[in-house]
Specification:
By secondary structure, this protein is mainly alpha-helical. It is built from 23 helices and ten strands.
Amino acid sequence: MKTINKYIIGLVALAALGQSCKKEMIDTNTNPKKLNDVGPEFLFTGATVDFTLTGRDRTSQKYGTTLKYMQYVANDGVDAAGMGSAYWDPGKTTGPNPGFFYYGDYYTSTGRDMHRIMDKINQMSDAQQATYQGLKAICSIVDTYSAWKVADVFGAMPYAQAFDGTSFPLPVYDFDYNLYKVFDQKLKDAATLLKNAPSGQVDMTSQDLFYNGDYGKWLAFANTLRIKIAQRYEKRDAGNLAAVLTDIATNFASNVISSTDGSFGYYQTRDWNNNVDDINVLLFSYDAAYPFVEYLKSTNDPRINFMVRQNDFGTNYSAYRNVQTNGDAAAKAALLLPENQPRFWGKHTFPASIDPTYGAYGADRFKTFTITGGTQTLGYLSAIQTRLFLKNGGFGGFDARSSRALMHDDETYVDGSTIKMRSFYLSYAETCFMMAEIAEKGGNGLGKSASAWFTAGIQASFDQYKALAVATNVPGASTINIGSFTSSLTYKGLPSIYSQAWVNYLLQPDEAWAMWKRTGYPQFTDVRPGNNGKIGDGSGIAYLESLWDGNKNLLIPRRNSLTLTAGSEPNRTNYDNAIKGMISKDASYGTGTQDTKGRIWWDQQ
């Protein structure tokens, strides 16, 4: 029984509280006898100070999975097998597993801690409880969000019987096809409590890393998350989405996230990401992907200046000036070629593209030029703008490929503590595109038309990325304006909405992956030597490259494997029943848990 309790509720001490927390709060983590003396608000801070970032691998996990699946990045310096390693060969019975951390993190940190805090509040006197009802609602919202992320990609999880090892030492698994309504009710209950705005609530200004104690913003987020979850299950239960929208319009005055400031996210407080040594491979092992770069270029999207790093072919780089000055005649002539003028180029994403017939966009990043006394390499392919992901863009690590000497003249290197990285989980821009889709399909747009939501989403996305780019020292970010970009786009309904949502999801690639599974957009197009299919065709619609290996198209994984975690062997019967239950509910789940090209129940295009 003790083993199972450890599996379910993770009986380990709370993570160390942030540096700004009081010493007595830190002492609590090593002295359980002090727990009763700690206010729940301080426990909330300690439980969320590293929200979704409990380890450094949480940053890099997306590089080779959803950032790659959704063709924001492509591997540099690998062969065809390396290009295809993230994908399924449809003729094989084994393939890659994305390896998401949501499951383990829920039971050993966020979910466990939110339940501990809510239990602590419930054990207080009535008078004390009355002052913590707002925080209790917030904890329920955070718990629900985190549990939904588990169900969303794993399909099953202990939920109703979790975190109670005494009553349920062997918890049964709940399924996503039931949990989506459970989640909705929990969020509605929390929103109702916050709407009624109980007086005398504890001040969360300093303890709430998301909204600085603004209960109104938590209310808007809860409503927005209700819509997002209901939309995820629209193909299975369209009536539920309509009912949720009606309820929010009728009983909550259509109160959803309505500004970037109201986005669900937080400024990272940890200092470990000042050291980029093991997370900066995004800078030198991945290139920006051809479909992403070409789409931005084809629409003259000003966000390209925030989202993609310039290549080395410009006078703001000393090595380029070296070729200009000391290159031989052929080198100097090559610098003048039309293909060497643009500063943004992306790499093809599919295994067959390494063939020389695909040209420089299938090759590795660098071109080599002959100069007096030797050679000089210049990075032809662009990196994604790593400053959005890593402090100082990942420069300054021990790997020579991240040497500060490789920065361009207009790129800066500053003390990492001066850079405030913000993570978004459900943004205003995302809300706009979500509501645009609903309105375009004839649903309740909460008072706005599809085109109005669409336009607002583009503006919100630009504003969000500009603010992030300025905060993380992207060169020239403060001087970039949106201009006439919004009005220059021809609105074509759902394909336009999905295309712009895809661009916006650069920093939320897991959500781009979910959108693609739910809608089929961006669609695939075949790219062959001399023919880029529909990539950047001027239509204003985004496409992905088919994952051609020379004989067939490979497949993107569609879910995570539900594995039996260490120490949970005694619960194998319930685990096995969960796998059987998902297969029985929908054969599209696949042949077993490892068949990650199979689908979670909601995944219906």
